[in-house]
Amino acid sequence: MPKMKTKSGAKKRFKITATGKVRGAYAFKSHNLRKRSNKMKRQARGSFVLSAADARMAKSMMPYA
């Protein structure tokens, strides 16, 4: 049986923690930051743990994660 392919978009956007949770980046941080509030930009730094439903979707795109 051949290896399953990982979706390359998912492998760039998500990381799996040691406990099996999925980490992702906050949205709306790439451009048009002038119109965003300082509070939003500050709170969107770093990454966060995806919800259970979103994590299930992300893990299905990364079969070996």
The number of E-state strands comes to 3
The percent range for helix content is 25-40%
Categorize the overall geometry.
Answer: elongated
Low-confidence runs: none
Which structural category fits the helices and strands?
Answer: alpha+beta
Molecular structure report:
The chain is an alpha+beta fold and 65 residues long. It has a domain at 35-65. 34% of the residues lie in helices and 14% in strands. The protein has three helices and three strands; from the N terminus they run H-E-E-H-E-H. The chain has helices at residues 8-13, 38-43, 52-61, and strands at 15-16, 22-25, 47-49. It has a three-stranded antiparallel sheet with strand order 1-2-3. It is elongated. The two termini are 18 Å apart. The mean pLDDT is 94.
